[in-house]
Amino acid sequence: MPSYTREQVLAFAPDPASAKAGQGQAAAARWPLLGVDDGALWGECTGSGKLPYRAQVDLSDAASACSCPSRKFPCKHAIGLLLLYADGTVARGERPAWVQEWLAGRSARAAARTQRATQPAETAVDPAATAKRAASRERKVDAGVAEIQRWLDDLERTGLAVAQGQPWSWWESTAARMVDAQAKGLANQVHAMAATAASGGHRPDWPARLLDQAGGLVLLARAWRHRDALPEPTAAALRSRLGFVTSTEQVLADGERLTDRWAVVGRRFGEQDRIRSLQQWLVGRQSGRVVTLLSFAAAAVRLDPGLPVGCLVEAELALYPGTCPHRALVVERRGQPVALDALPAAPTWAAALGAVAPVLATDPWADEGLLSAAGVRLLPPEAEGSWSLVDREGAGLPVDPTADCWPLLALSGGEPFEVAVLWDGFAARPLSAGRPVRVLT
Amino acid sequence: MTGWDDAVDAALVGTARSPFGGGLPPPLDGLTADGLLTTAAVLSRARRAGMRLAPAGRPLPEPAEHDNRPVVGRTGEALLREALAGPQEVLVEGLGLVATAGRLLPPLLLPDVLDLGRRDVDLRAVLLPVLGARAAWLARLRPEWAWATGAGVERALDEEEWQTATLGERLAALVELRRTDPDRGRALVESTWAVDPPAERAAHLLALGEGLSIADEPLLERALDDRRAEVRKAAVDLLARLPDSAHARRAEARAAQVLRVERKLVRRGVVVVPPEGDDPELLRDTARATAPPHVGAAAWRLERTVAVAPPRLWTELSGLTPGQLLAAVDRTDWAKPFRLGLRTAVLRDPDPEWVIALLGDELDRELLQALPTAGREAVVSRLLDSRHAVGALLALPGPWSAELSRRTGGLVDRLARRGGAGRYESAELLRVAGYRLHHTTRLELAPGEVHSDLQPSYAVAVTALSTRAALRRALMEESP
């Protein structure tokens, strides 16, 4: 029977809140049914509903499934189960039918995947076939773009207020058709608009945000129609934003290489469709270039932690073409990371914002970027307003209402500091600040 | 000509209802944009590219005063963050450690800790010493954190505020007030006595335990006649602590009737005589508590009589030590009710000799925990060689003295190497020892070195212990 330590189990948790919740579930009293055998671990746990939740773990790879409604993997019940197992308090038992079915389903799916992988790969050497596939995709995207244009024209006529009142399914049906047209980027944009519409309650600026996003979509459609006339960097950004993927091999082969000492100034965890993600922002000490690292993990797989945050790391990176800030791959790390003593920062917000225009000139869809300034102080909100990051000229950068600024205020003690934020054109989300640099998320 | 805001308004409504006829403003008017959304697309990019921020318009808060005391370092901060998420006992010990080290809590932890102190009044006493000037500054910026603004000085409530304050606020104010002006505190309690619900009356009385004096007697005697049991019980608890009160004199008189010493040749014996018949005064003085099932009337009267008498009476009356007295009582027929009553009396007024005498076969944790810390450590020290060692150590909150830790370190190592009977308790001890052992204690055992037969829980407990001990050392030794 494979063994796991508590530390290993807690590391499976997708975020600290889940780890803590999992520890709360790790009490034998909550599990009227518990059992383990050589391949599987299972249990029934009292939940908030009438029926108990059934959780199960495949011990060979710690994959889990649970009947609870949580969308996190592993969920807190699976973590609790694994913790009980790690503590040696689960007795051997006879595997129930529902566990057997799940395991059988998993191995069937795994076998199918192996079969596909070991089939002789289609050699990409055949240029005619590649060209044929590319042309076919272009036609599909043409159709998708035409359809999104019709949808946008409709939106223009009926108005954003009506759209905001539409149910999720209304947005989802358009997004689904974009996926069918092999233009996943358009689907993502539609989903983003749906999220803005849904946030109307706590974002009073939702109409401006929604129009900004619609404008981006209009430009994507227009740019696609005139793609042959675009300069290369913009064309690359267009393809990337529509969902044309550049493979890791291509990046390593053709991507721009950059070696620098990179300040890891911020990170963001995310989750969508049961896939967890981690995004990190890096600023090159010498070049001043801003790049971003992205890693993804499916359920029960450990998420690559990327580079150590709040540190300076010497590394060679390879850049993906297209979107700004460029996504990068770490080709090679060199030496030991060093704690970052101060953030690279512009003297004022105006100076920092000055970098936005040149980026937009290349990638007009770059709606989220890194800004950093020195000599900034936090201004607490009055009444229902939002926090503001005020620079030495007195200019106030509005902070996103969902960001908790009290820790940053405590860290600063009211004195000026350097801060790096994620700016989406409407509000800022602080990523890191201070000397030495503390990462806030 | 359309600006961004106009475009937003128009887009909300839709062109079907309000036809769009605008063009782009300069300097964009060279471009042709057909339709509202295309115009908006251009304007949205222009808006982002040319973003100008408005001035803040409001004054910034003045910076915090500088506090010279050093702040906990990074590894200590990680330890405390873990403690914040764990059981309260562990957090309280961690905070005590920080205070002993003369350090302050790190700034990033302050918001969580200020929230905690707001919800949990009991934690405030242990939080305030490690907050510092920056925490007070932060607290002044947010009404919910008002409890920490003076960093120690709770504003006294006046009569009107007392009327409308919550129970938590009243109790916090009362405890503080009883230290400086106890009569005023009692007056506040009396001012709403008639209208307060019984649970609150009882809680107020118990808070009067701080700064208790004979001046409180009238209120307490009045409370003895209260309709509700919990109020009467609180009154009895407090009156029994006032040796000059009428209640105490009555209790002493009754106690003298109960115990008689017989001088025998070899050893002194005692005769225990339970009080006879229904004594309304006894009933009143013991909160009119009703007997539990299967307890005889005489036994119950005896138990209650002993429960409200101060333990020192028994040694005075008999001339025996606590241990000798209990041995003698055990030889009578009334041992059980006498012991039960004595236990209540000792819990109220704990004395190490009485606690040890009463401990007996089962480890009575509640008795142990009633002792003040210094006395408790002495008692636990004496128990280290007995089979109560693990249980006694669990009942002793940290930080432990260097001497006790040195002796316990050996026990902890042995437990980890060989395991122990009462597995759950031993594992629990290993888990908490990491927080309670004196920071100079070195354990012989390295994390990897556990007995191969040990359950995984032991291995985990020992790993946690070694890690925590190392972190605690880091907290005490690292420079901020």
3D structure, described in words:
The complex is a heterodimer of chains A (441) and B (480). Chain A has 441 residues and is of the alpha+beta class. Chain A has helices spanning 6-12, 16-25, 76-86, 97-118, 127-158, 160-164, 168-180, 184-198, 206-225, 232-242, 248-254, 349-353, 356-362, 406-412; strands spanning 33-36, 40-45, 53-58, 63-66, 257-272, 275-284, 290-297, 311-319, 326-339, 369-379, 388-390, 396-398, 417-423, 428-433, 438-439. Chain A is globular and about 65 Å long. By secondary structure, chain B is mostly helical. Chain B contains 26 helices and 2 strands. Chain B has helices at 4-13, 36-49, 74-84, 88-100, 110-119, 121-127, 132-140, 159-164, 167-180, 182-191, 198-207, 217-224, 229-239, 246-258, 280-285, 297-307, 312-318, 322-330, 335-348, 352-359, 365-370, 373-383, 389-394, 402-418, 423-436, 456-477; strands at 259-262, 269-272. In chain B, strands 1-2 form a two-stranded antiparallel ribbon. In chain B, β1 and β2 form a beta hairpin. At the A-B interface, α5, α6, α9, α12 and α13 of A face α1, α2, α7 and α26 of B.
